[in-house]
Amino acid sequence: MSYNKFTSIISVRIKALSVSALVANRLSRMKRGVPFSIENFYSLGTTTSVQKAMSRLAQTGEVVRVAKGFYSRPKPLPSIPSIKITAKAEDVAQTWARTHHYKIAPQGLESAYRLGMQTQAPVKAVYWTTGPSREFHVGHQTVQVKHTTETKLQWINKPEGTLLRGLLSLSPEHTSVATLLMAIKRLNLPENEAIEVIRKLSNSQILKMWHSKLHQLESNLR
Questions:
Q1: What is the DSSP string of 89-107?
Q2: H helices within 45-88, ranges in order?
């Protein structure tokens, strides 16, 4: 073996070791039980070297692969330290959406249930997203993510968005103004903000069938 070839092999091995150390060091500062994307580590070396480093850490139990390209540091269960939890399936879905810059929110029935407009909790955890449809499985937890339009995902993390998605899962003919008043109260908004939310929804074309009920709701708040 020539000297140049030998030094080249040694150099590659040193770089691989340094990438592993960098990955392990960054990982040690991350919270346990919180999912993360391997893409967060690609700045530390080549894609291949980072993937190999993460694979070795998974083999030793330092991390657990919770979905393709997503990992989590195991977290001991406080009551039973010998049992370790990885991450919630819903958190994995949220991390996946954030990584790929997709919008994501609980689907309409979940929003309706949270606002008291639906008495029965959805059997499955379902989210709407602007990304592709898929499922996430972590332990016994399953979260279904369904592709939908941007229109249904307006006002993410805002009260009007939660109410919008709740209304989209219900029928205006079978929903009383009293039920809508209860939903508004659950949003915990001052009266002027609640009226502003209702007016925004009244101007939404996808809630055209709800316009009459929303006007009645606004009148009841005055």
A1: HHHHHHHHHHHTT--EEE-
A2: 47-59
